[in-house]
Amino acid sequence: MVKRAIIKIDEKKCNGCGVCIPNCPEGALQIIDKKARLVSDLFCDGLGACIGHCPRGAITVIEREAKPYDEKKVMENIAKQGKNTIKAHLEHLKDHGEFKYLNQAIDVLKQKKIEIPKGIIETQKKSAPLPCGCPGSALREVKPQQSSKIGSASKASSELRQWPIQLSLLPPHAKFFQNSDLLIAADCVGFANPNFHSEMLKGKSVCIGCPKLDDDEAYKEKIQSIIEMNSLKSITVAIMEVPCCMGLYAITQQALSDSGKKVKLEKVIVSIDGKIKK
Predict the structure, then answer these.
(1) Pick the CATH number of 2-66 from 3.30.70.20, 3.40.50.720, 3.40.50.300, 3.40.50.2300
(2) DSSP string spanning 138-150?
(3) What's the pLDDT score for residue 264?
(4) What topology is assigned to 157-277 in CATH?
(5) Residue range 92-147, pLDDT digits in tens
(6) Whole-number Å distance between alpha carbons of 240 and 272
(7) Which residues, including other chains, have CB under 8 Å from residue 47's CB and lie 6 or more apart?
(8) For residues 188 and 245, is the Cβ–Cβ distance under 8 A?
(9) 5: buried, middle or exposed (CB in 10 Å: 19+, 13-18, 0-12)?
(10) SS3 for 152?
(11) Two domains, one topology: 2-66 and 157-277
C-alpha cells in the first residue's frame, strides 16, 4: 500500500446517473446499488477525468493509502473496449504527463499486436511535450550538476531538478512534485539573488511566475491542485520586496487554506539589490 491520489465518491451527493462511467475508460467505476462505486484501487489513476463529468459534484480527488495503480492491468481491460477507448486512455495519460504509464500501455498494445492509434506519439526513452504542443516544454527530471573548478576559481552549479518551471506550463500531477519541498518563486528572484541556486533552489521542486502579469485566479487554482495532489513536505514562497510581488504569497496562502492540507509555509523576501531580508 502507498499513499497516493485517488478518487472519492460522496454517496449522499451521487444519484447514480452514470455520467462518470464512460469517462473512466480505466474501468475503476461501476454503478452498484444505484450509486457510482470505485471498484478497484488498481484501476484508478487518480487523475480525475471523471470529476468534470459529475453533475452533482460527488467526485473529488483525495490522498489516502491505496494499492499502486497498475497500468498493465488497466490496458488488459481497455484493449477489449476497442480503438476509440484505447485512444482516449492514451491521450488521457499523455495530456497529464504520465509518460511512464503511457510507455507501459504502449508495450501492452505491442505485445497484443494491437495498432497504436494515430496521433499518439510513442515516448519510450524520451520525454513528450505537454498539451501546448511545444517540445521545449516536455516534462523531464534534471540531475543537479556538481560544482567544478576553473583554475583556482570555483564554478557554481545548477540545482534545477526538473523542466519546465513556469507555473502555467506545469501539470499538478508531475512526478517531481510528489514528496518534495516546493519552491514558488517570483520571476525576478532568480535574477536578483546571486545565490538563488545554492540558497533557495537546492533540493526543491520549483515553479515560477509573476502575479502582476498573469492571472491570479489561475495561479491559485494551479497551486491548490499541486498541493492537493501531492504530499508536499514544505512550501517556500520567494518574492521581491516590491508591492506587486506580495500577491504571490497571498495566493499561495489562500490555495493552501482552500486545500484543507497542513503544510509548512515559509516566505522569503529578496531586496532589489539581491539580499535576503530577514
Answers:
(1) 3.30.70.20
(2) --EE-PPPPPEEE
(3) 96
(4) Rossmann fold (3.40.50)
(5) 787 776 777 888 888 889 899 998 887 675 444 344 444 455 555 566 777 766 65
(6) 7
(7) 5, 92, 96, 98, 173
(8) yes
(9) buried
(10) coil
(11) no
